[in-house]
Design brief:
The chain has 255 residues and is an alpha+beta fold. Helices cover 18% and strands 38% of the residues. The protein contains 5 helices and 16 strands. The chain has helices spanning 190-201, 208-211, 214-219, 221-229, 234-248; strands at residues 14-25, 36-38, 41-46, 49-50, 53-58, 61-67, 70-71, 73-78, 92-95, 98-100, 108-118, 122-137, 156-162, 168-170, 173-175, 180-184. The strands form 5 sheets. Strands 1, 2, 3, 8, 11, 12, 13 and 16 form an 8-stranded antiparallel β-sheet that branches. A two-stranded antiparallel ribbon has the order 4-7. A two-stranded antiparallel sheet has the order 5-6. Helix 1 (190-201) packs antiparallel against helix 4 and helix 4 packs antiparallel against helix 5. The longest helix is centred in the C-terminal third of the chain and has 15 residues, at 234-248. The radius of gyration is 21 Å and the shape is globular.
Length: 255
């Protein structure tokens, strides 16, 4: 093999920041609704668990190692949250402006973007689009302090657990269920990424016809994911897309 080299131009990559947070509440019918911009998002701290080895011994040696299931969890930190998140936070509105707490917590989907940089282009190198679905937010601590000569904004945080959904077979490989998808803008096809972002964030006026109705676009997310990662002919891809759309119309889609 060729001799390894280190620190070639453009290879010193790093990930930084968090922006473009979007909330996707799940309706009572089990479908993800139109996305809502989450302003004030300050951090998303991923904290997966599981994937731990259980050692099995036989004949006085380690016979094998069994791996436990992996679960995805995260902590969302923000200075405030969109009104649509209230039901996900266990709140219910009795009348306009009057809410009560300790109610049932609705599930939701969530997406955000982190910047991808290198030593040549800096933070303009690219970005990673993160999608998280099947989320449930746990109660969080919220502090209120007096205003003084060095006031601080009250920060909020939520512990988030997830329920993975089926991925199925892609490119002949069967994958385990997952609750997360990460999309690297420097590696995927730019046109396909734009199509996906039109679904997640809404389309420009001139592209509305391409997006069709928002609800149909949300339900076809898995089809777009297949098109992002699967190298197939267009006709075959369309067949796969409609098959997946049909399946997800009868259960909760990831987005």
């Amino acid at each position: 093999m060729a001799r390894l080299t280190w620190h070639d131009a453009g290879t010193r990559k790093y990930e930084v920041g968090v922006e473009k947070g979007v909330l996707y509440p799940i309706s009572d019918a089990g479908a993800y609704t139109t996305g809502v911009a989450w302003n004030g998002l300050s951090a998303v701290n991923e904290s997966p668990s599981g994937a731990e080895e259980t050692k099995v011994y036989a004949d006085n040696i380690k016979y094998l190692g069994l791996m436990s299931a992996e679960e995805y969890a995260a902590t969302i930190e923000a200075y405030y949250y969109p009104d649509e998140f209230a039901e996900c936070n266990g709140e219910a509105e009795l009348t306009t402006g009057v809410t009560i707490g300790q109610q049932a917590r609705k599930k939701f989907g969530f997406s955000y973007v982190s910047k991808l940089g290198n030593e040549v282009q800096g933070e303009n190198y690219g970005y990673i689009l993160h999608l998280v679905y099947g989320c449930v937010a746990s109660p969080s601590e919220k502090n209120h302090q007096t205003i003084n000569d060095s006031p601080e904004v009250s920060a909020m945080s939520w512990e988030v657990s997830t329920t993975p959904v089926e991925v199925g077979k892609i490119n002949g490989v069967t994958y385990k269920p997952t609750a997360t998808v990460s999309i690297d803008s420097t590696k995927v096809d730019s046109e396909k990424l734009t199509a996906l972002e039109n679904i997640l964030y809404g389309a420009e006026t001139g592209d509305v016809q391409d997006c069709l109705s928002h609800q149909r676009c949300i339900r076809s997310f898995m089809a777009l994911l297949v098109l992002l990662v699967q190298q197939v002919e267009i006709k075959e891809a369309e067949t796969q897309k409609h098959r997946i759309i049909g399946r997800w119309l009868h259960q909760s889609p990831p987005f």
